[in-house]
Amino acid sequence: MARSVKPQRKSAGKATRSSSKVASSQSARGKKAQTPPSPPIRRKPTADEIAYRNALTQYEGAVKLLSENHFAKARNVFEKLVDTATPDLAQRARMYLNVCNQRIARPAVQLKSADDHYNYGVQLANQGMLDDAEEYLQKALKLASHLDYIHYALASTSALRENAEQAMEHLEHAIELNRRNRYLAQNDPDFSTLSEDPRFTELLYPEKPV
């Protein structure tokens, strides 16, 4: 009679130990995956890169000066950049340098009369060159202090330069010489900086409300 062969049982202890090894291996891999990457090594900028950054800062400052109508100061910076900056930055600086030179250029003809200086002063004011505009308007005033429109132009320019005292002085003279200037000033945006000044309101609207 043949013997029946009993199937061999696998050792539970070995299976448990094998599962523990797998779990430990997976845990180790998980820990490795959770380790944050080391920060990248930052290199020091080269001398050329530092020089370019400095030139770019100067360029941006000069552009701001130009936008604020400080043409002479901006021109000085652009002139240096044309000679020292990289080709691309030097080219942009050269373009703005030409703009500065055009704004600063003096008239080719000699100004003689009060109206010559007045007209040129108004032209400069319209271009945003307020300091130069005031210079020529003051010359016009010395030649003809009795002309109301010169006082009015000086009042307008002074208001744009936020010089309230000088603006009020010239506007008062302009109105004394010609009452029409009171109504012009009421709708003139150049005097917006004086809108909250009680002296300005009293000068333009002297009539007491009913």
How is this structure best described in words?
- By secondary structure, the protein is an all-alpha fold.
- It is elongated and about 80 Å long.
- 23% of the residues are buried.
- It has two domains: 48-104, no CATH class; 114-204, Alpha Horseshoe (Serine Threonine Protein Phosphatase 5, Tetratricopeptide repeat), CATH 1.25.40.10.
- The chain has helices at 12-34, 47-67, 71-84, 87-104, 114-126, 130-143, 148-160, 164-177, 180-186, 198-204.
Topology-level CATH name of the largest domain: Serine Threonine Protein Phosphatase 5, Tetratricopeptide repeat
State the helix count: 10
What form results from the Cα inertia axes?
elongated
CATH superfamily of the largest domain: Tetratricopeptide repeat domain
Q: How much helix, percentage-wise, in residues?
A: 55-70%
The count of β-strands is 0
Distance between termini? Answer: 137 Å
Order of helices and strands: HHHHHHHHHH
The low-confidence parts are 12-17, 19-23
Q: Compute the average pLDDT.
A: 81
CATH level-two architecture of the largest domain: Alpha Horseshoe
Domain tally = 2
At the first level of CATH, the class of the largest domain is Mainly Alpha
Gyration radius from CA atoms, angstroms: 39 Å
What is the percentage of strand-forming residues? under 5%
